[in-house]
Each structure stands twice: as structure tokens, then as C-alpha cells.
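Form P-L/3: holo structure prediction, ligand 3-hydroxy-3-methylglutaryl-coenzyme A.
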Amino acid sequence: MNSVGIDAVAIHAGKLRLDLAETFAPAKGEDPEKYTKGLGLHASSFPDVEEDIVTMGANAAHKLMTRKGLEPDDIGRIDVATESAFDNSKPVSTYIAGCLEAVFEGDFHHANKGERKFACISGTQSLDDAYNWIRAGRNRGRAALVIATDTALYARGDAGEATQGAGAVAMLIAEDPDLVELSLEQGFGSADETDFLKPNQQFPSVDGKRSVQVYLARMREALEDYESVAGDVRAEDFVYAPFHTPFPGMVRKAALLAYRHVTRDTEIEDSLAARIGRQPRAEAFDDEDAFFESVREYMDALKETEQYQEWYEQAIEPTLDIARHVGNWYTGSVHIARASALRNARENGIDMAGESLLVGSYGSGAQAEIHAETVRENWTEEIDALDIDDQLAARRDISFEEYEEIHDVHNHDKEIDIDAFTTPSEEFIRDGLGPMDERTYRYVE
Ligand code: HMG
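OUTPUT (holo model):
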């Protein structure tokens, strides 16, 4: 069996931009640095009035299919990962297929369609489903389209409001892929948690501070589980580590823990010992609190070392470049972190062919997954084709009052009738409701 992985990727960002430091922080009476330095976020992307998870997903998929010269007959499966669905029965993939059928020759009647839910991790779970389908040989030579699309809104006034975002990532999963091959090995950390949930409600109930701890705990379990099948992970094994990025400050916390883990019992730990001591081992302590205190002190010192800072700048910081300017895209988040890392490699002339990524996905509720990816020969063509910088630059900045309006427009419980802020061109838009209350869409030339 040839390798299986991501053959192509296309991204669609919500067309509005809320500046967190200039616009959001002053309206909230907060220090802008809480956002830019503390959370590591500069701006959030929002969907315009005529955008939603279907239009963003369809626009990303349309771009991907056009660029790769694909017809519906080339696709055997369409899976949408989202936690922003507006229909409890009809999957978003059917709406997106309907959009695409309006612009491509042929139809998707032969394609298996579905919708995956497990908070943010369902984007990666959909990759898994596509991978397994191809490896099982059930794909009849066809590729799978995986679309992660979300409008990540929090209730007004919730602490999570600062981390909002909206956008979609479309990925083509195929044999002998052009971008990255997925490892057979994967590790999980999964537990019944109530850190973030939406019990039949649009906006999440969140225990923000606890969600940070749950993310770290599940990610650590997933790494250990991954090592149980793939062997110990070492810092030099991978060039970048794209992680689920609800906000860059979260990844900063996860990265420090990961670095401590992957340098334990290595020459790096030895070389740091004279300056910051060796890593505390639980067996050396009678008392758990004393052990944790010692770990905290070690981590504080580790964070200040040149070795850690250099590794962070090379392996982690480049994965956050896009997230900083768009916020949390939930299911798409880890997939823009991968794109961000590879874009950085391209800009810096780093030859990634044959090199590895360590990919960490997470979904509240809660589950983490870790796998490795090997970058393929043709990766540069795929990364060069990304137009995310142009999209981000073209976004329309919104004032705080406009933000309040757009939040209401996308609130399922409100009916607000305002004009779109941008003029659509060569894209799908939402244009109303049909006789059975179904959302309707059309392509604007
Ligand atoms: P908060 O209470 O508004 O912020 O909520 P804070 O006071 O904790 O400050 C945030 C950071 O900024 C802190 O850094 C402050 O020190 C720093 P830390 O100590 O944590 O390193 N700070 C400043 N730095 C510089 N200058 C300043 C300043 N002021 C403060 N002036 C919270 C933060 C994350 C709780 C909130 O945004 C939230 O509830 N977010 C939503 C939940 C979330 O994103 N959780 C992340 C893990 S769960 C996850 O990833 C899953 C998710 O994507 C959903 C899914 O899976 O579907 C969310």
C-alpha cells in the first residue's frame, strides 16, 4: 500500500477582522497586552452576514478542487468536522456538496457523507476516518474530502470571547499524497470531562481555567500513549510540532511541558543540569505537593534557558503565525498550525522533504491525539498555493459596534437584518431559508 495522507489543503478565513488590542480591549476596559502578550492573539476573524460554516467550507473545498483539477467523480467521501452545526439531522456535508454541485460538472451521489463531532478534535478524527477508508481499500481509487469548519463564538461577556474566530480548512486525503504522510502510530488521552460543552445550546458553557488544565493532562496522556507504540519522542525527531491552538498562550504552556518530557534522560537534560539541576523524579519525593512544587521550580528555570528558547522559536513559534491573526477555529485550528509551520519553512528556505512533524490535536470533553507526519517531496507546491496571507490582508476591519451587530447576526436566537460589510465575488453565499427552514446558498460570480 502506498502512503496515505494529506494531498492538498485550502483555507478560507471569515471575511471580517476584529482587532483585539485596538478595538476589543479598549471597549472591555482591559490592557491590550493581555491579548497580544498574555493570550498571544492580535485579531479574530468573523464571518460576514452572508457567510456561515457551509459557505466557508464550500469556498475552501471549491478552491482546493479547482486548483487540483478535481471533479466530483474523483471524491468518494465528504466528511465535515464542526461543532457549529445548525441542523441536528442533515449533515453540513450535504449542504456543501449541494453548493459544489452547482459549480462543478457531475454530482456527489456516489460519495459517502457525514459529520463528525468531538469538539475541536473532530477535524483530526475525520482525517483518521478518511485514512482508514483508504487503507482498507474501500475507496475505489477515489480521494476523501475532509472539511473542518467552525464559527467559534462565545456568549457576550464570557472570558472566551477574546479567543473567538471563524474559518474553514479543506483537506484532500489520498494515496501517495503531495503534502504529508500520516503515521500509522497514534496516541490518545481521552476522559469524560466537563471543561467545555454545548448541551443543546449554541454558545459553550466553559470552565476556562480548568479547560487549560484538562488540555495539558490529556495531551500528556496522548504523548505517553503515542510513545508506547512509536518509541520515545525526542526533541530532534521533528522540525515542528503543530498543536491545537485555542490561543497561542495555550500552546506556550503545552510546549514547556512537552519539552521537559522529550528531554528527560537525554543529553539536553545532562547539559542543563549544572545550571538548573536535573528534572525532579516523583520517586525521590515522599510528598506529592513537594514534588509538584519542585517541578514548577524546574519548569520556571527551564523556560529561561537558551536551549528551550531556541527550540521554542524553531519548533513552536512558527506554528502560531496564522492563529495569532484569526483566533480559534476549533476543528480547523491544528490544521492551520500545520499550514503555518510549513509556510514558515518555505519562507526560510528549510528543506522539509522527508522531515517530520509531531501533530497534537485536542477537543474538549475531552480527548487529545498525537501522531507524526512525514513531509512529502511536493510539499512546496502545496504551500505556495495557499492564499491565506492575501485573505487576511483583504479582511474588513470592524468597529466594536459592528462586532456587536455581527455577533447578533450569527446568534441563532436573534433575528437581525443588516447589510453585509463586504461585497461577495466568486464565492458561495448564504441567501436565505427554504420552505422547510433549510438554509439556502448560491454562488456569486
Ligand atoms: P481570562 O481570565 O480572561 O485571562 O481567561 P487571564 O486573566 O487568565 O489572562 C490570560 C493570560 O494573559 C494569563 O497568562 C495572564 O497572566 C496574561 P498565564 O498566566 O496564563 O500565562 N495577562 C497579561 N499578560 C501581559 N500583560 C497583561 C496581562 N493581563 C493578563 N496586561 C481563558 C483566559 C483562557 C480562561 C479564557 O480566554 C477562556 O475561557 N477561553 C476559552 C477556553 C479555552 O480556550 N481553553 C483552552 C483549552 S480548551 C481547548 O483548547 C478546547 C477549545 O478549543 C474548544 C474545543 O475543543 O471545542 C476551547
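COMMENT: The chain has one domain: 4-444.
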